[in-house]
Amino acid sequence: MTFQNTLQFAQQLDSQDELKEYRNEFIFPQHDNKNVIYFTGNSLGLQPKSAKTYVDEVMSDWANLAVEGHFYADKPWWDYHERFANPLSKIVGAKPSEVTVMNTLTVNLHLLMVSFYRPTKTRYKIICEEKAFPSDQYMFQSQVNSHGYKPEDAIVEIKRREGEHNIRLEDILAKIEEVGDELALVLFGGVNYYTGQVFDMKTITEAGHKQGAKVGFDLAHAAGNIKLELHDWNVDFAAWCSYKYMNSGPGNVSGCFVHEKHHNDSDLPRFAGWWGHNKERRFKMEPTFDPVHGADGWQISNLPILSLAPYLASVEMFAEVGMDKLITKRNQITSYLEFILHEIDKEVKGHFEILTPTNQEERACQLSVFLHGEGRPLFDYLMKNGVITDWREPNVIRLAPVPLYCSYEDMYNFGQILKKGILEN
User: Fold this and answer.
1) Topology of 53-321 in CATH?
2) 394 belongs to an annotated ligand binding site
3) DSSP 3-state assignment of 48?
4) CA angle, 193 as apex, 147 and 34 as ends, to 5°?
5) Where does pyridoxal 5'-phosphate bind (predicted)?
6) N or C: which end of the chain has fewer CB within 10 A?
7) Distances (CA, A) of 303 to 79, 100, 109, 220, 255
């Protein structure tokens, strides 16, 4: 398609958008009595209008049924989480038994590392990406420390080549092979939070397994954003937060994946708790842990239903839309945003460097833009003029045109505000 940097063309794209009605299903912050241009769904998704209905339902059941809500609510609380299995399995490419919801993201990664990071005297190293999200870095450091290893010895970071913004797949594979028999775990982000680079999880998983290591992924920026096939890729485990692309609300519950090949492994250690115990015998209060078969067997405490409610509202919307339609629009609206940036770059005689790969297979819903010659005042200008975006030092803005609620007209209007901000600052 040949794009045009005009309002009429953007509105034409919106009129042809198969998902355009879903924009009305979300609540936008307001600026001058208009919807803001919202680019930070990679940090916190907008609130679905249906979320309040789902939360109010739980509050009503709590008021009217009290403890009996566990069994007699319209959506009984004791198996509330089971409603996520089918829709989440489609979002991440898994079998329903391989996914569950519980806790929050880093908590779940820690718990999964109990099972899948089992270092020995000779096999103890973890491979991860350079500039992973800080929480992952802290997790790696504390995990290896807990096993008596030094982070500088046990953690191997795959680095970008000098002068490059993204990590080459060939360098990842070479490092996995180099570490070889010392490698216990490969744990990467599915999408790098800073650059927006999408990693080839299938190939990385194959390479890690070839060396005898376990392979897992932090899918914080991937779940609800890219096509995932966790089961078919043979990934050992994964976890993701729900409040970014899946719009469940601030700090909300995390999703987990555990491949079915591990479900019957009684020798696999895990931290146990009541809610992971055999569902049919849970209320017999037995002293010996008998895990639920499947990913639910990694649950520990009973679930926070008030947190699950808005997540369920969003997950059911995803089930209605389907990932294929989301990805089709994601690709086009992200390409249109890229076009707008290049056009404005010409008009202001500036220099925007897009850090995110241009190859569609290596990017998703985020463009990270290095604003050469510009600084924090430009970001502040955008925020004051109704564009909510994300600033990362030294002068990078991250833009995520989420396909469920961003419009092509948003992309055009952003370009005009950006141009004005550069010319005025």
Assistant:
1) Aspartate Aminotransferase; domain 2 (3.40.640)
2) no
3) strand
4) 140
5) 105-106, 133-136, 218, 221, 243, 274, 302
6) N
7) 9, 11, 17, 20, 12
User: How far is 258 from 95, CA to CA, in rounded Å?
Assistant: 10
- Report whether 259 belongs to an annotated binding site: no
Q: Is residue 351 a known part of a binding site?
A: no
Q: Is 221 annotated as a binding residue?
A: yes
Given a contact cutoff of 8 angstroms between Cβ atoms, the answer to whether 84 and 64 are in contact is no
Instruction: Please tell me the predicted confidence (pLDDT) of residue 284.
Output: 86
Contact between residue 156 and residue 175 where contact means Cβ atoms under 8 Å apart:
yes
Quick one: which H or E segment has residue 53?
A: helix 50-65
Q: Is 61 annotated as a binding residue?
A: no
Which residues, including other chains, have CB under 8 Å from residue 298's CB and lie 6 or more apart? Answer: 100, 102, 111, 112, 115, 256, 258, 270, 276, 291
pLDDT given at position 193: 94
pTM given for the model? 0.96
Matching CATH topology for 7-35+322-424 and 53-321?
Answer: no
Within 194-308, strands assigned E span: 214-218, 237-241, 254-258
The domain locations on the chain are 7-35+322-424, 53-321
17 among the known binding-site residues?
Answer: no
Can you give the pLDDT at residue 216?
98
**CB contact set of 16 (below 8 Å; sequence gap of 6+):** none
Cα separation, 42 vs 195, whole angstroms: 12
Is 106 known as a binding-site position?
yes
Average pLDDT over residues 12-35: 97
CATH assignment, 7-35+322-424: 3.90.1150.10
Q: What is the pLDDT of residues 278-312, one digit of tens each?
A: 988 888 888 899 999 999 999 999 999 999 999 99
* 302 annotated ligand-binding residue: yes
